[in-house]
Write a structure and sequence with these properties.
Chain lengths: 386, 133
Amino acid sequence: MRDVSIVGIGQLPVEKTTSKSLRQLGAAAVRLAMEDANVEKVDALFASNMLADELQGQKHIAALIADEANLTGIEALQVGAAMASGAAALRMAYLAVGSGEADLAVAVGVEKMSEGVAAPALAKALDVEREVADGATMITKNAELMRLYFERYKVPEDGLVNFPVTAHRNARNNPNALFYGQSVSPRSVRNSRVVYPPLRLMDCSPICDGAAAVVLAPSQEARAYSPHPVMILASSVSTDRFRVEDRANPLWLEAAHISAQKAFRLANVNREDVNLYEVHDAFSIMACLLLEAVGFAEPGQGWRLAAEKRIGLRGEIPITTMGGLKARGHPIGATGLYQTCEIVLQLTERAGKNQVRNASIAMMQSVGAAATTVLTHIFGSNVANS
Amino acid sequence: MELSQHWRLKQQRYSLVGEICPYCEGKIFPPRDICPDCGNEAKTTFQFNGKGEIYSFTTVRQAPAGHEENAPYTLALVRLEEGPMVAAQLTDLDDQAVEIGMPVEMVTRKLRSEGERGLLIYGYKFRPILKAA
């Protein structure tokens, strides 16, 4: 494998509803990323999307986007891993360039959740014959985990409040965030409606539309495309027992643990070297359990990182630095690529008011269902490496 | 879900029939072809006794499509006496407050109906263990 770097990024502002179609959204993100990399063609395109088959009745997304972006003729494949699809597309583009199969590859994620009903489509990431058949959804799974966590570790009722509060504070300065410019007080989080007890509305990431893309090139040639390339130091993926109830300890996210350990090994960095962590905060409890699985906190202590305000931009482990899934938004198939774009901005000192100081190593995790599939990526600023 | 899917599941769904691993004696539910504990082939059926306790739970007021007629309902993770954990709805709760550790037992109930001329789908739910009078 040769080293691979990100040489272009493209993000469309996340919106509740856009007038653009699925293919327009995807292609617009691709064009933005290609313009940023100053390239007019690429060898391969990897597209991620979870719900179009259900919500728009459309399959075959990669070729659709390649066509709309006027890239016909190139390799274009769709990559799927439920809510972790964006990171899966990034990984496939990384492998394509790393292996030498492609010299320039684009990974693009797109989701349009404003059409149709998203919740039942999302639930299909669970076991349809067992969990869904009993009336479970992604939210009920997370509510059960949250109840178990609160009871086992005697967590105070407002123990997770600072996860959404931190995410919203950071989204305020991110022009691509769904909650850009809006302030959300700790009180409004604390008093938000209990939707699936003990889980509150403000523990859930919102339904929205969005698309994001990145262009990858061999690190050796990266400077030909970009004055500020960011290197992918590691890409890994792991899986757990499909159903939460089949795991020995449902509060321990083994797939997140294994993929993180593998990524640290591949990148040759320690957890202590990570300057910021884009966590998959689809639900507050998921962010909390991921912090524990990676090792930023001991089991049962993840909530304290938030409660003691150690996850802010100046904290010991900044997370959701541009709003996270909670406040940038979680347009499912695009989410992993938004996270990637945000990390590129952080590692190249372009994150504006949300800049994490001296950020040179960043980590990202993307989660399919209740941590059944977890991808970990670690990135490094080339500035720091040269 | 298609009719054939329901048909394939009926034994486990109606009567909580799983498997016992002939190699490590691990109890398996729902049944699968490879024992999750030791990795050997598992094919011997095993009747679970239907008793267990609540491991965690939540309440659903806004039900997903197809489950509206049951709402509000309580979903739980139930640890069976023999070891495996299942996800299921609770039933016959009346006003009883649910808590982690509460003993429950399996009953066969209607899960949902697919419209007036559609399938009636039955399966297991769990109810609080009735105390002797």
